[in-house]
Structures are given as C-alpha cells and as structure tokens.
Amino acid sequence: QKEVEQNSGPLSVPEGAIASLNCTYSDRGSQSFFWYRQYSGKSPELIMFIYSNGDKEDGRFTAQLNKASQYVSLLIRDSQPSDSATYLCAVNGRDSSYKLIFGSGTRLLVRP
Amino acid sequence: ETGVTQTPRHLVMGMTNKKSLKCEQHLGHNAMYWYKQSAKKPLELMFVYNFKEQTENNSVPSRFSPECPNSSHLFLHLHTLQPEDSALYLCASSQKGGSNEQFFGPGTRLTVL
Predict the structure, then answer these.
(1) Which of A47, A45, A41, A7 is nearest to A24 (CA)?
(2) Nearest to A49 among B31, B99, B104 (CB)
(3) Measured between CB atoms, does A87 come within 8 Å of chain B?
C-alpha cells in the first residue's frame, strides 16, 4: 500500500463546477496535511494546509480532513480553466515532523 | 516567487561531466531539501538539511553529493550520472518547529546524455 494515494485522473469538470480531489494516507499518526498545485513544467506551489478535523476555507479552496477515515480532500469552487494543473497531496511523516510524503498527484482539467 | 531560487534552470550534461546545482532561500528558514521528480512518479525526497546538518539521506546513490554551507544555501554536486538521472530537481525550504510548509524553488531540469 502506498503511503499517500491519489487518483491520477484526469479529473475533467466544466468551468464553474466544483472540483473534488481526494487523498488517502496510511500512517494514522500523521499530523499535517498539505495541498500543492503544479502546473506543467513548473514547481509545486503550496495552496493550503490543514491540521484539524473538519473544513478549512481559503477563497475558492476548501480543504477537508477526516483523521478517523484517513483521508483529506480539496474542493475547488467555481473552477476556472486556469485551475487546470496537477494537485499534489502531501502528508508529514510520523517519524519526522519536517519530512513530507507526497502522493503522485491528480491531474485536473477544467473545460471552458 | 516563493523566495527560493535555483540555478541553473536547465542543464544538459554527459555521463562523465561534473556539475553542481545551487539553491538559495531568502525566507529565513532553517531546513532545506532536495527532491527529484521524474515523469509519472511521485516527488522523491533525496536529502534533508536542518541547521546545516544532514538529517536525511534517502538511499541516494553516491554520484549525488549534497553540500549545505549555511542555512540559506544548498548545493547538489553531480558526477558520473546516468541517463535515468534525467529529471526535475527541486529544492525546498521550511521552518522546522513551525507548521513546516515547504516552499519550492523553480527547479533545475537536468538531462543526462
């Protein structure tokens, strides 16, 4: 089992829709969870992080964390073509508070 | 701009060459990282430095040699690489003890001929 799993996609949504990206992790002791956006040929850009169960909202983005079920999700409201990118989920490792384990990423396509 | 710079942005080298990648962070962070990103694979952590001390070597071949002279600068020295080492090499930094958000530089696209 991979430590951090994401559906590779592509996830295709029409412009203006809600895009829902999911991530599961295997280490129940993980404490911090991060979402990065990576455009083709570019480096990852931090979008959000979350520590506590529940929702955290920032503009059009909402991160959701459920530690009991070991999943974290990212919702993008009013999706725009400029949101088309690969979204990486990252989880801090239990053995190190500063080591992040990344998923393979989900490719999102927003159709105009 | 994230406050993390990397040079060069692109590098083509032969298998017998020696080259170095440079990373500099202007964020006052105390931890720096090297990652490798190959096509269709997750980001692979290579090395971690915390306050200039190497705290992680993720079974990286010895043809990759990191150097961290201070908390703001990180180098990756390359020698006798293989074509399969062609990838995007990313540097990141974070503040250990804080929320540990890692901020990435733009990366160096390396091609080994």
Answers:
(1) A7
(2) B99
(3) no
Q: How far out from the chain centre does Cα B84 lie?
A: 17
Q: What is the pLDDT of chain A when averaged over all its residues?
A: 92
Is any Cβ of chain B less than 8 angstroms from the Cβ of A32? Answer: yes
pLDDT digits (tens, 9 = 90+) for B48-94: 998 777 777 778 999 999 999 998 999 999 999 999 999 999 999 99
pLDDT per position as a tens digit, A36-56: 999 998 999 999 999 889 999
**Which of A43, A98, A104 lies closest to B94 in CB terms?**
A98
A7 touches chain B (CB under 8 A): no
Which of B87, B52, B48 is closest to B68 using CA atoms? B52
